[in-house]
């Protein structure tokens, strides 16, 4: 990455100033760079710490459309050997009869790929380091943001000034850029916490992702590649009531593993905890708007959802594809990246997809959270009906792949 840029009133000038260099922010910078769009990326953390072993044990389900994005920006060679294909998804209410099995037809692509977040970060950072259109500012705190008719300027704690045409908020759910703009949130607390870790297990997972719904919350087992020593491995996302989270986190490894095994009912044989446990409070939040004067929001700064079905990161990557496309189209017509027409097109494009995806995910969480044997029986009858309807299953699989609706060109094969 190149630290030189043309000065504008003493500031370093680029097309975009992206605040937040996480998975979405850095993907945006790299995708934009491939279109000739330059950017500053400002990240508070140290990349070496973000990619250190054991710091982030989370894994993400990358949809087919999101994989197309990574491939189209040159990450296929680095990422292809590291992802575990999701060949099927099993959805069940408390492991009782009446489950749904989503499995592509022979010859169709997998439903997605599972990646350790660390592996995606390493690939993104390595590519960004070689990209002259990206200037990366790490361990950097923003002390002021200014937007005006002629551009945007950001001042860092050390006094360095960065200039651009468009400011992008990619700092995550607690985006100070969004809050400073006064953008409101439609938000509620699920009063649940996701406990995230990884398991080694005796029996193979056969590339099947399991979503097991219990009254207390979903219990997801997501396939990962086998360990170098040949042991089978899965990511675990166990949702527990917020009031129980501290107790679950305080369990000994043996007690925690025993509770997990009880919910798995022995389907993977003996299990072993192989990563630290991390806890994340769960909530719904959707920004009332995602653009302002020379401002755009992407990823969790714009929308945050329950991790059920693993669609949060994929939704953010669709933001990336749409924003880069409208920016590139506008710049070919002679418009600035911060032009209001360009940003309005981005907001309109993303509105329906975001609302639909988040509403469906929230509805599923609420539907499967209704307690009682009657509610469970009704759910299982409904799932058994869906199991017998191939067209409806195909629709759901296309949604999981991220292939429905109007896709940005970067997310197409």
TrEMBL record:
The keyword Translocase does not apply. GO terms for molecular function: FAD binding; monooxygenase activity; oxidoreductase activity, acting on paired donors, with incorporation or reduction of molecular oxygen. Gene3D superfamilies: FAD/NAD(P)-binding domain. SUPFAM superfamilies: FAD/NAD(P)-binding domain. One of its GO terms (cellular component) is ubiquinone biosynthesis complex. It holds the Pfam family FAD_binding_3. Residues 15-350 form the FAD-binding domain. One of its GO terms (biological process) is ubiquinone biosynthetic process. It comes from the Bacteria. Its cofactor is FAD. Pathway: Cofactor biosynthesis; ubiquinone biosynthesis. InterPro entries: FAD-bd, FAD/NAD-bd_sf, Ubi_Hdrlase_CS, UbiH/COQ6, UbiH/COQ6_monooxygenase. Keywords: FAD, Flavoprotein, Monooxygenase, Oxidoreductase, Ubiquinone. The keyword Oxidoreductase applies. Belongs to the UbiH/COQ6 family. PANTHER family: UBIQUINONE BIOSYNTHESIS MONOOXYGENASE COQ6, MITOCHONDRIAL. This is Ubiquinone biosynthesis protein UbiH. The lineage of its organism: Bacteria, Pseudomonadati, Pseudomonadota, Alphaproteobacteria, Sphingomonadales.
């Amino acid at each position: 990455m190149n630290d030189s840029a043309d000065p504008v009133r003493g500031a370093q000038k680029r097309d975009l100033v992206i605040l937040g260099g996480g998975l979405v922010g850095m993907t945006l910078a790299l995708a934009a760079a491939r279109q000739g769009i330059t950017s500053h990326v400002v990240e508070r953390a140290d990349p070496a710490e973000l990619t250190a072993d054991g710091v982030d044990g989370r894994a993400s389900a990358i949809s087919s459309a999101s994989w197309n994005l990574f491939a189209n920006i040159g990450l296929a060679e680095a990422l292809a050997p590291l992802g575990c294909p999701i060949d099927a998804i099993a959805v069940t209410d408390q492991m009782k009869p009446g489950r749904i099995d989503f499995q592509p037809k022979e010859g169709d692509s997998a439903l997605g790929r599972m990646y350790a977040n660390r592996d995606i970060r390493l690939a993104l950072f390595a590519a960004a380091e070689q990209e002259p259109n990206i200037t990366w500012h790490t361990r950097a705190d923003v002390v002021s943001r200014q937007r005006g008719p002629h551009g945007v300027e950001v001042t860092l704690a050390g006094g360095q000034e960065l200039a651009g045409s468009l400011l992008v908020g990619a700092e995550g759910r607690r985006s100070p850029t969004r809050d400073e703009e006064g953008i409101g949130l439609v938000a509620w607390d699920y009063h649940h916490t996701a406990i995230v870790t990884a398991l080694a297990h005796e029996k193979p997972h056969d590339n099947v992702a399991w979503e097991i719904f219990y009254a207390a919350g979903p219990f997801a087992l997501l396939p990962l590649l086998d360990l170098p020593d040949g042991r089978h491995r899965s990511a675990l996302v166990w949702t527990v009531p917020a009031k129980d989270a501290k107790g679950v986190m305080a369990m000994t490894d043996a007690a925690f593993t025993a509770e997990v095994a009880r919910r798995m009912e022995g389907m993977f044989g003996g299990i072993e905890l192989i990563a630290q446990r991390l806890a994340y409070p769960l909530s719904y939040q959707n920004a009332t708007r995602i653009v302002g004067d020379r401002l755009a929001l992407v990823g969790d700064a714009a929308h945050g959802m329950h991790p059920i079905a693993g669609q949060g990161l994929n939704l953010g990557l669709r933001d990336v594809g749409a924003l880069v496309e409208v920016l590139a189209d506008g710049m070919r017509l002679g418009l600035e990246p911060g032009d209001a027409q360009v940003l309005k097109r981005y907001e309109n494009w993303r509105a329906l997809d975001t609302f639909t995806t988040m509403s469906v995910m929230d509805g599923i969480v609420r539907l499967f959270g209704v307690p009682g044997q009657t509610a469970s029986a009704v759910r299982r009858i409904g799932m058994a009906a869906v199991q017998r309807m191939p067209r409806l299953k195909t629709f759901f699989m296309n949604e999981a792949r991220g292939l429905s609706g109007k896709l940005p060109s970067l997310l197409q094969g």
